Model the fold of this input.
Amino acid sequence: MDYLKRAHELNETLLRDRRALHSHPETGCEVPQTSAYIRAQLEEMGLEVKACGRCGLTALIGKKEDGPVLLMRADIDALPMQEESGLPFASQTPGKAHCCGHDNHAAMLLGAARMLKENEDALAGRVKLMFQPGEETGDGCLEMIEAGVLENPAPDAAMGLHVDAGAPLGQIAWGQGPTFCSNDIFILTVQGQSCHGARPHQGKDALNCAAHLVLALETLIAREADPSQTDILTVCSIESSSKAFNIFPENVVMKGSLRTYNNDQRDYLLARLQEVCEYTAKTFGCQCQVEFEASMNAVVLDEPMEEEIKSYLRETLKDEAHLTEKPIRKMGSDDFAGVTCRLPSAYFFVGAGADREHPYPYIQHNSKVVFNEECLPLGAAALAGCAEGWLKNHAK
Ligand SMILES: [Zn+2]
Ligand SMILES: [Zn+2]
Done:
């Protein structure tokens, strides 16, 4: 099948799906309306849809049950922010918006599913669709894994994608090895003992301890992390329980994150973070509790698979898209890491900028971000073309 031609024919459906999801954004793992919309479209295509986790969905396409299985994942959740795009189909839910573009991912995977279902007889194996909520909150992928997305049937490999309003339309960027950082969002609670600001010796100053802790954690990166690697440890919030100038706080809560591309380095730094917190707190007579709000591995792609997928992208998208010369690396994270550390995986980025030469001035996570909808048929065709090509090449 000429997936690109067919995707252009399906443009109205792609736009309808994307806009329907865009105007009714939901956040986190609880996305019942989004999930119901996607389920209805899949069932209308004749697919058997299974719930996976609270609002995740899976479905299988393909008749060769003894063939290989490729997992194709789209995240479907929005962000807790107010949309200011000015679009006629902008969010109708105050304080929630599809500013990361996951509505596009859902529409693209629905489009790919429609085409693959039409072409089901030609598939040398099966495609397992994974519509995943809770990417932004970092817990959706693992929830679906725990609910069995990687079993019955177990996929042999996986693919994911992301749109990019900061890249020109028609640009397809690819990754090589480590592509997204790991992300461990930590909450440190320094417990001291409050007392009068004029009599510091009668308490334990949690604020002073927290200040030393920020510097000690910075030094962890400066002196213990390999300088040839990219590691970031940031403390972005410090909140004292005292609001007065003359009361030492009972406790101080700090929030930050640790990011790295190397999963071994991550394990080492996390262990050291615990030690630095414990011993720095002890130095000042305080205690420090370390908790993690979310944790995810680095997304490390399978290099042979990524090379293979690049050839299908070129074949499928022809001269309507061009692959970047060099691989791309993102300092952000994607909880698809839960899959990439278990299965050989590929991932690509679909340019959704203003035109074929220019990005938009506002990109993902900005309240004014806009995605060029001409990226929809490209993304849908890319997914379908990669699926057919990969299944054929790995036929058992
Ligand atoms: Zn995002
Ligand atoms: Zn995203």
Q: What stands out?
A: The longest strand covers residues 231-240.
